[in-house]
Write a structure and sequence with these properties.
It is a single chain. The protein is mainly alpha-helical. It has four domains: 17-171, Serine Threonine Protein Phosphatase 5, Tetratricopeptide repeat, CATH 1.25.40; 179-216, no CATH class; 222-285, Serine Threonine Protein Phosphatase 5, Tetratricopeptide repeat; 322-420, Serine Threonine Protein Phosphatase 5, Tetratricopeptide repeat (Alpha Horseshoe). 75% of the residues lie in helices and 5% in strands. Keywords: TPR repeat.
C-alpha cells in the first residue's frame, strides 16, 4: 500500500510539473503577441504549484513574469519594480537565464534610469532614488546606479538610505574610477572618446585619429566618505563623523575630497583655524585648477558661507571664463534670498509703512534679478540647450518687464521641450 501511495504521489508531482510548464508556455506565447495581461493570468494560475518544480522552471516562470509586468508597466513604478524583482529572482534561481533575458533587463533598466533622470530634474528625489536603487538590484552589477541612488537620497534628505547605500558601496570596494579611451580627430582637432580600447586603437590605425590616450576618472571614494561624514554631522553624530574622517584621511592623506570633508566638519564644529588651514592645503594641491575652486564654492555654499562661495566661484571663472557651472551657481547665489523676500512681501498688510516696506523689498528683488541676469545670459550663450537656465531667464525677464526677451526665451524653451 505504501508503495502505491508513493507512486501515486510521484505521478501527481509529474502532473503538476506538466501543468505548470503548460501555463508558462502559454504565458510566453502571449508575451510574444504582446498580450501581457493574458500572460499574467496564465502565470497567476501556475504560481500556486510553483514549489513542486525545479529551479530552472521556476526561473522561466519569474522571467516570464518580469517581461509581462514590464510590458504592462508603462510609467507605473510599482509594476516596473515588480518586473525588476521577478528578473532578479529568475537570475538567483538559474544564473544562466541572465543571458537569455539580458536584452529585456537592459530595456527595463533604461526605462528606470530615464525615469529617474526626469524625477531628479523635477526635484522628486525620493522617486529618483527608488528607481535607481531598483535598477541596481536587478543584477547588482552596475554599481553606478547605487551611487546615484545615494546621491538622490542625499538631495532628498533621506539620510538613512544614503548612508545605507554608501556603506554598501564601500563594503564592495567601490571606487567609481573608470578609464576613458580617447584620441584626437585629425580633421577637427577635437579629442573624442571611444567605448573601449579596441575601438580607439582601430580608429588610430585608420589614420583619422592621433594621440591615443587613456584618461582615468577620479575615484568617488573620497566623495562618498565626505558625504557620509557630513550626514553624520547633520544627524548630530559627531563622534561617528570624526572617526570616519580620521580613518579615511589616514588611508588617503592627500585626497582632496577627504580634505574637503575634514574642512567642512571643522567649519560645522566651529574650528575655524583648522578649517582655514585645510582650505589652503586644498588650493595648494592644484592652484590653477578651476574645478577645485568650483568644488570649494559648492562646499562653502552648502555650509552657508555664501561670501566665501562667491569668492571661489569667481576664482573658477577667472581661470575658466566659459565655466557654465560657475556662472549658474553665482546666479543662484545672487537669487538665494528671493524666497525670504517673497515671504515677507506676502506677509505685509496695507498700512503706509507696509506699503513702503513692500516697495523696498520689490526693489531689492529686482536688483537681485539684474545682478544674476548677466551670468545666466552668458551661461545660455555657452549652452543654449540648458532648459533650467532658460526657465530662470524667462522668469527674470517677466519680473523686470523685458517682454521681448521673455517671448524670445519662451519660444526657445518651447522648441526644446517639443523635441523631448
Amino acid at each position: 500500500m505504501k508503495t502505491r501511495i508513493l507512486i501515486t504521489g510521484l505521478a501527481f508531482v509529474s502532473a503538476i510539473s506538466f501543468g505548470q510548464k503548460k501555463e508558462i508556455r502559454k504565458a510566453e506565447k502571449a508575451i510574444k503577441s504582446n498580450e501581457y495581461s493574458e500572460a499574467l493570468s496564465y502565470l497567476n494560475e501556475a504560481e500556486p504549484m510553483l514549489s513542486a518544480v525545479d529551479n530552472e522552471m521556476k526561473a522561466q516562470f519569474y522571467a516570464a513574469r518580469g517581461q509581462a509586468l514590464f510590458g504592462t508597466g508603462g510609467a507605473d513604478f510599482n509594476k516596473l519594480k515588480g518586473a525588476a524583482e521577478a528578473y532578479s529572482k529568475a537570475i538567483e534561481l538559474d544564473p544562466k537565464i541572465e543571458i537569455q533575458i539580458g536584452d529585456q533587463i537592459q530595456n527595463l533598466r533604461a526605462t528606470l534610469i530615464n525615469g529617474a533622470i526626469k524625477d531628479q530634474n523635477a526635484q522628486n528625489y525620493k522617486m529618483a532614488t527608488d528607481k535607481l536603487y531598483t535598477s541596481y538590484m536587478v543584477t547588482k552589477k552596475d554599481t553606478s546606479d547605487l551611487y546615484f541612488a545615494a546621491g538622490n537620497a542625499v538631495n532628498g534628505k533621506d539620510y538613512d538610505s544614503a548612508l545605507k547605500y554608501y556603506q554598501m558601496l564601500l563594503d564592495m570596494g567601490y571606487s567609481g574610477a573608470t578609464i576613458e579611451y580617447v584620441a584626437t580627430n585629425k580633421t577637427t582637432g577635437e579629442v573624442e572618446a571611444f567605448d573601449n580600447e579596441k575601438l580607439r586603437d582601430f580608429a588610430v590605425k585608420s589614420g583619422e585619429y592621433i594621440k591615443p590616450e587613456a584618461n582615468v576618472a577620479e575615484s568617488r571614494k573620497g566623495e562618498i566618505l565626505r558625504n557620509m561624514t557630513l550626514i553624520y554631522i547633520e544627524k548630530g553624530d559627531t563622534e561617528k563623523a570624526k572617526s570616519l574622517i580620521e580613518t579615511a584621511r589616514a588611508e588617503n592623506p592627500n585626497d582632496v575630497f577627504l580634505m574637503r570633508a575634514d574642512a567642512d566638519m571643522s567649519y560645522k564644529m566651529g574650528d575655524n583655524v583648522r578649517y582655514n588651514e585645510l582650505m589652503e592645503k586644498i588650493v595648494a594641491t592644484d592652484p590653477e585648477n578651476p574645478e577645485i575652486y568650483f568644488n570649494l564654492g559648492i562646499s562653502n555654499d552648502q555650509l552657508g558661507n555664501k561670501e566665501k562661495a562667491l569668492e571661489y566661484y569667481n576664482k573658477a571663472l577667472e581661470l575658466k571664463p566659459d565655466y557654465e557651472g560657475a556662472l549658474i551657481n553665482i546666479a543662484a547665489l545672487k537669487l538665494s534670498g528671493e524666497d525670504a523676500i517673497v515671504e515677507e512681501m506676502n506677509s505685509l498688510g496695507n498700512s503706509s509703512a507696509d506699503n513702503k516696506r513692500y516697495d523696498e523689498l520689490k526693489k531689492i528683488r529686482e536688483n537681485a534679478y539684474k545682478d544674476a541676469m548677466p551670468y545666466l545670459e552668458k551661461a545660455n550663450a555657452i549652452n543654449p540647450s540648458n532648459q533650467n537656465v532658460l526657465r530662470y531667464l524667462m522668469n527674470i525677464y517677466s519680473q523686470i518687464g523685458e517682454d521681448a526677451k521673455y517671448k524670445a526665451v519662451k519660444a526657445k524653451l518651447d522648441a526644446l521641450e517639443a523635441q523631448n
